[in-house]
User: What shape does this take?
Amino acid sequence: MINKNFFFKGYRSIFTHDSPAIALTCCFIAIGALFKNLGFNIQESIFSTVLTYALPGSLVMAESMLIGASLLNIFLAVWIVNARLYPMAVSLFPLMMHKSQPKWKYYFSCHFIAISAWLIMKSNYKKIPKKLRIDYWIGIGSATVSVSVIGTFIGFSFSEYLNKDMMLGLAILNPVYFLCMMIGASKTIPVTLSVLFGTILGPIIYLLSPEWSILLAGVIGGTIAYLAGEHSVS
Amino acid sequence: MSANIVYAILVTSLATFLSRFLGALTSEGIRETSKLFKWFNCLAYATLAALIARTIIFPAGVLVDASYSSRFIVVLLSLVIFFISKKNFVYPTIFSAICMAIINNYI
Assistant: This one.
């Protein structure tokens, strides 16, 4: 079924000195507090974290619920915000595909695709035999979801003790952590240019089209970076 | 559980899972050495960078309450810490939270 050694190796990857556990926990503490303020109970809050496991999507759901949006509107808004998960999946799963592994592992574990788990896997996959990468990935995903659930629980339970300054501190932590991780991952020309163009184009395109800004910036910035990378190789 | 909240959670998780599942499904025919894979890799990094930049410059949620300048100063100082600490991820992250709380409270 699942190779226990590589599953736990993946699970332990979140406890390294530079792991995303702290950032992830803090973000979900903020989400837990937000859910409580929205009127969710503890079961609903944890249910949402486990089933959605995507911070921007959860924020969009919360904002949509605040303004009384319909279920169709929530679906479309979340789908657009989380469409970034598609290129993330396509740029990760070919690294883990192995014909000896059953398909269900891939279909099940695609749920773990999120920035933190994706970046951990991207920086460690070369150290893992290809056949066992999927088990390692399931370990990483299980660990990040566990940490998210713990964060949601803490945020929900202690929401009344979190003042505005503390919430601000928790909210800035996530983009700073991922910005550092992205800079740390920029080791090749195409990746460095992708990060650079994405960072510049994201806010610029937001001024023209807030809903589509992330996707458009990703497609335009990523394509330019890819072509520049190919050109530099040739 | 309230039915409305449960439906909203289910719809949100379905919308999120759709992109992930389609990604996993279409990856089956893509080799990791192919040009298509390299292109998608660039798309993924650029999309994430755009998301992070947007979160800092045009935030949603509580970060809206922090001024542009305070967000800019915090991110800049955190990046300085990141490079001084030889690209350690934890120090700038913890620093950013403390720095933001202090700047927002006293400046």
Observations:
- Residues 31-59 of chain B form one domain.
